Structure formats: structure tokens, C-alpha cells
Amino acid sequence: MLIQLLISGIMLGGVYALTSIGLSLIFGVSKIVNFAHGDFVVVGMYITYSVYQATGLSPYLSWIVVIPCSVFLGYLVFLLLKRTIGVQEVNQIFITLGLSMVIQNVILMVFKSDYRTIRTIFKNNIKIGDIFLTREGLLAFLIAIVITVVFLWFLNKTDTGRAMKAVSQDRSAAHLMGVRVGGIDLLVFCLGIVFAGIAGSLLITMFAAYPTSGGVYNLLAWVTVVMGGLGNVVGALFAAFLIGIIEIVSGYYLGADMRQVVYYVFFVIILILRPQGLFSGIKFINRKVKTNEAH
Amino acid sequence: MLKIKQISSGYGESQIIFDIHMQIDQGTIVSLVGSNAAGKTTLINTISGLIKAWSGTVEFLGEDITALSPAARVDRGLIQTPEGRRLFPDLTIKENLLMGSYSKVVRAKRQENLDYVYHLFPKLLERTSQLAGSLSGGEQQMCAVARSLMACPKLLILDEPSLGLAPILIVKVFEIIEDIKKKGVTILLVEQNVQKALCLADKAYVLESGRITLEGTGQALLKNDQLQKAYLGI
Amino acid sequence: MKHINIKKLLLWIGFFILLLILGTKVGNNYYLDFLITIFFMASMASAWNLVGGYAGLISIGHVAFLGLGAYTSSILFLKLGVSPLFGIFLGGGMAMLLAFLLGILTIRLRGPFFTLSTIAIAEILLLLATRFVDLTGGSQGLDIPYKPSVFNFVFKSYYVYYVIYLVLLAVIISVVTYINHSKTGCYLKAIREDETAASSLGVSILKYKMTALLISAFFTGVGGSIYAQYLLFIDPHSVFSVGFSTKVAALSIIGGLGTVLGPIVGAFLLTPIEMLLRSQLGGTYQGLYLLLYGVIMILVILIIPRGIVGTLTEVVKNKRKKDADRTK
Predict the structure, then answer these.
(1) Which of A23, B99, B125, C175, by CA, is between 20 and 30 Å from C22?
(2) What is the CATH number of domain A2-294?
(3) Which tens digits make up the pLDDT trace of A100-114?
(4) CB B127 to CB A175 under 8 A?
(5) At the topology level of CATH, where does B2-77+153-232 sit?
(6) Which of A164, A176, A185 to mutate to test the interface with B (most CBs of B within 10 A)?
(7) Mutate to test the interface with C, among A81, A260, A261 (most CBs of C within 10 A)
(8) What is the ipTM of this complex?
(9) pTM given for the model
């Protein structure tokens, strides 16, 4: 049974990773505090739902709508936040909280407060030995992992990816390298929102969306980012798996309504005891190992 | 090559430099000396475009670049090696060097430039995959200079390249600067090490409280009474 | 606080008495409820402002204090028969205790992480209140029986509630005014302007922030208890939902952070709009007022980040300065 729970947890964590990598990227590179990230996930859920309702298009193909919408939304929101980058963190909190109110209530007015979900794609589950997996869950996990891996490749192997890392480490030095830092900020923000949107399109096949569900995903994404070490994309990935496992295991043993309590408590403890995150040690170990090699 | 006319600038509401005039000729080393907080870094950051000029113009290779972004200036070959090296600590040496040639103008020459800087600093080649944050001060300075050279500089601004280095390394740094000059790169050298900076310079400016108070050839300034008292302790 | 401005004080007392008398003239319970809600929102926004405005701690989980206050007095009354007359203060005390524990643990966290920790605490309490059905009635909530008496702190007349809320608001305004002029207030403002400079001057930042947090939590808890006594019903979502905190913060921000009058102006301007929209539109458009709050909040932050009162004060100051310069 425990193995079943662990695997379900990791499956769930894969999708959570996608929501938090966007947030981690935005916070890590541009230092923008985005308290509406969960609402962008929910926007992705509702777009996918509407497309499915209107045309019957599979949630996995609805990306052709979700991605341009997310880019456009990201661009608009970036215009609001542009002037606050690096100077007014508190205003970023207020603007994104205001934005969250706007998004949630627009959704409420358009879609009412009913729960919306798409649960008719696949009929049967997969069974491997004693372990059950839902097809939606497995597919979402695989897609999320592929996107994450491709993104990590992009971050490490392309000039633009390297520029993102450079901006996150030293903005003014990045200017001196000829990086259009404002352009990188915009790109990162839109990319983060696109990841959130895609995560939403995967989540709607598993969970119901309702107007205020953004609050849950927002806190979830932040929990993951803090656990993973701020701005540490790989850390966020591991943290997401951990959260997925915690959620499934505590949901099983303590009841569905307690699963969030467990990881919120875990989150507060981490904020207090290890604000640098759980997985920030990994980078440090790498650095040490490499130093030793060289000598 | 670089002409600065009546530049004033500062941070927020506090003005730091006042009506600066400066001219740098092709192929020369120009030194900018002055005490701490005289406004040297503010001046070169205004030249690099990190800070907006409040008034005045910056002309580079005959073009008015006052309104250009820092990145556009880099594209034109105006490169700064900032004070304190400012390497990207969590990127490897190689990644730092690649960042040096980020500008699209010089990307085609990337491999050629890599070979050149590895030839100039063989130590960097030994440690290409080491994180820059783990290097010693001297190694970091070499990496920072190498990173700037990756951008094919026409004018290289070096801000305090000898700061915090051991004496033997300081000698090395100044040798390298002369080497770079021989390659045809024009250099603006900002230094607190006044003696060394003036020896090397074809021309020098002294900046005090945000204003140019003295200018002349390096040799002439070395003999200047005022300057000797203030900076050389003679 | 050495020289109290007698004229100003008398003006305020006069205003208070005027409002008391005006209340008796409003015969209609609908309008009284309208005013009560405004007073309540103004009280909560003022209490929030102590933390969010003066101490620079952006707490979006302030409902934790509100809900804890409401549940404390209600549970004490329903299970142990403790009169809400005391329960209200015990509710405030419980909120203060929570604030103390929270403060010790999280007050050192940098900006957004303090905010996140407050949201997490509020969410945890919401889920716990739903879970522990025996004590809290779970998502069914708690009903306080309608048996009007002073001991039960339940009243037939809306006017009594009107007075209670007016007194609560007056007390909070007095406390905020006092703090604004006191040493604590000066230090808090100094910290807000420049934390590193203030700490190098030897100002014990944490002590002053903690003071603000405790006072704010107390009044929010008291407000929650009274709220429960007024509605005679509480459930986890009505007293622990983070959305309420965001709304309260929005009132404060729009009115002017770190000013005595800001949150009150915010509440008196926006709460009537909210109530009108809610009663007129209802149904599908029940979210319209929150959408409006969000839009106004974003616009205020972008255009007049000091809020209505802060900006007006600045304009008046500048004008006076100009006039003074001219007379020279």
C-alpha cells in the first residue's frame, strides 16, 4: 500500500512541479513576488474546460489556446509590475493580491461558483502488479516531467537560458554582458505564466476548478518554491515530489481534509528553521565536489 | 574614440558627478584616478549606460550613444569589467566566459575568442567547469578580464582591477593590461593605485568630489606637486 | 503625547456624541445594519493598519485572529456558559496569544515570507475548525441562540449593536492615534522608512513590531467575538477565509497605509459601494464588488501608492510649504 501511495504522490508532484517552476523562475530571475500565481493556474484550467465544452477538443490539445492566452495575460500583468522590479516588493504583493481578486471574481461572474472538471477522457485505469494508476495522472506526470527536463536543458545549454541564470545572479553585471535585462524579465514572466497555464490544463483532468481555487494552488506553489530553495528550479522539482507524497500519504492516513494542514505546517516549520530551503544544500555539495576535483 | 561632454549624473536625487569632460583616443590607455567616493564608478556606469546621464552627451566612435541601453553599448564594443569582478557565482567559468560573448554581434567569433582567452589565461582552461564563486580573488579577476575580452571590446573600461589582490598579482594584472593594449584595445583604467595607473597611462584624469580637477599625460601628472601630496604621499 | 491638542480632542468627542445621537434617529434596521457593517470594516481595517501600515508586516492571514476570537467567545458561551461580556476579551486574549506565538516564530521573516506564513496559519485554522466538529460544529458552524439579555450579550435593538461597534471603532482610533504620536509609533515609522538605518540606531525592531502585532491581534479578536454575537452564527468560511483579510488590507491600502484616518476613509468609501452592489445585483454578479476592490487597489498602488489620505496630506503639506516660501 505504501508503494502505491508513494507512486501516486510522485505522479501528483510532477504536475505540482510545473506550477511551481514558473513561480520559482519569476521569483528567482526577476525577484517579482507573485501572489496570483495560483490564479494563473486556474485560468489555464478554465480555458481548457471552456475549449473542451465548446469544441470537444482534448485537454492535451487545448494548449493551442492556453499558451497564447497565457502569453497575452503574462504580458499584460508584466506591464503592471514592470516598474516595481527590484524596488518595491510590498507593492508587488499588493498588485498581485489585487490581481488575484480580479481574476477570481471575473471567473465567478463568467462561470458561476460551480465546480468544473473534465473527467471523461479515459475510462479505465492502468494496473501494474498491485499498483493502480489513472491514465490522466500518468499522462500529466509524463508531460510535466518532459517539459521540466526540456526547460532545464534550455536553461543550461542556450544563450537565453544562461542569460536568465545570469540575471538572477547579478542584474547589473548581466546588463554589462549585453543582456537586454528587461526583455529577459518579460520572457521569464510569460514563460512562468505559460507553465502555470499548462499545469492548469493538466490539473483540470484530475481536480475540479472553482473560482477561488487559485488560493490553494498559490500557497502550494509558494510552499514548493520555499522548500526547494528560492529560485532553485531543480530544488522546486524535488520539493514538488515531496509535497505530492506528503499530500497523498497524509490524505490516506489522516483523511482528505487534513492533507493540506500537514504540508502547511511543514511549510511554516521550514520557513522558520530552513528559510534557504530543503534542497539548497545540493548546489553547495556540487560546488564542493567540483572544487575538490580541480585540486 | 570616446568623447564625454558636460556629463552630470547621480543616484536618486543626489547628484554625484558634475560637468565632466573627457576624451579618449584610439589605442591609448587613459587612467581615471581619485579617492574613494570621488564618483569614479558613477562616471563609468554613466558611460556604460547603467545610470542615465542627467545632462550632457556621450559620443562613441562618432555616434551619440547617450540614450542607448547598456546592451546596445555592449553591441558597439563598449565593454566594462566592473569593480569587484561581479562574476556570476553559480555559473561555471566557461558559462561566465560564454556570457561575455552574449551579444549577437560577437557570437560568431565565440570559439576564436575562447581559444584566445584560454591561451592568455591557461589557468582558466584547467577549471572550465568550476563554479566562479569558488575561485580565489586573483583567479576571479582573470576570469572577469577574460569575460570582457570575449566581447571583442573596442573600448575596455576596467574598474579597480587591482583591488584586493596580492602585490604579485597586481603586477600581473598591469602586465595583462599592457598586453591587451598591444592587441589594439583602447583602455579606460579606473584605479586607486595611482602610481601604477599613471605610469601606464598615455593620458590621465583626476576626479575629486565629482569634478575633474587635473588632466594631462601620465608622466606630467606624476610630477605634479598637488597630486603627489594628495595621492602619492610624497 | 505630551501636549494633547484639546481642541482636536473635543472635536472628536463631539463627533462621537453626534454619531451616538444620529443612531437613535435611524429607525430602520436596514440602515443601522449598513452603518454597523461600515463601523466593523473600519475597525478591522484600522487594526490591520497597525501591522500592515505601521509595522510593515503584510499579514494576509489576519482572519486567523478574527476567527479565533469569534470561536473562543462562542465556544466558551455555548459549552461553558461563560458570558460573552468576558468572552469578548478572552477572544481578544486568545488572538493575542496566537499573535505572540506567531510573532516569535515568524516576525523575523522577510516581507513576502511573513505574508505567506500568515496565510498558511489562517488556512491551517480554517481546516482545523472544519475538522474538529465536536468543538466547532465543523462546516455546519455554531448557532448562538437568540435569547436577548445583557449576560448573553444578545440584544433586541440594533441600536445597541450600533453603539457597541461605534465604541469599538472609537477605541481603536484612539489607540492608533496614541501609537501614532508615541515613541513606538515614531520608531515604527522610522523602521518602515529604513530598516537597516533604524536598527543601527539601536532601535529594537522586533520589540516594536511585536507590540503592534499584539495590539492589532487583540482588537481583531475582539472584533471577531462581537461579530459572532451580532450575526449569532459562525462557520469556518465566514471567519477564517483569507479573502476577508485581503479585503480589509485593500481598504487600508486604498485609504492610506500608516495613517490614522486612511483605513477609516477606505472603509467609509468602499463598504457602502460593496453593500449597494451586493444588494442590487446579487446572484451572478456577487463578485463584482470584489473585482472593483481589486481594480481600485491596483490603480491606487500604481498611481497614488500612499493612498487617498497619504496623498492628500502630502498635497496639503506641499501647498503649505509653497505658501510659506512665498511669504518669505
Answers:
(1) C175
(2) 1.10.3470
(3) 999 999 999 899 888
(4) no
(5) Rossmann fold (3.40.50)
(6) A176
(7) A261
(8) 0.92
(9) 0.90
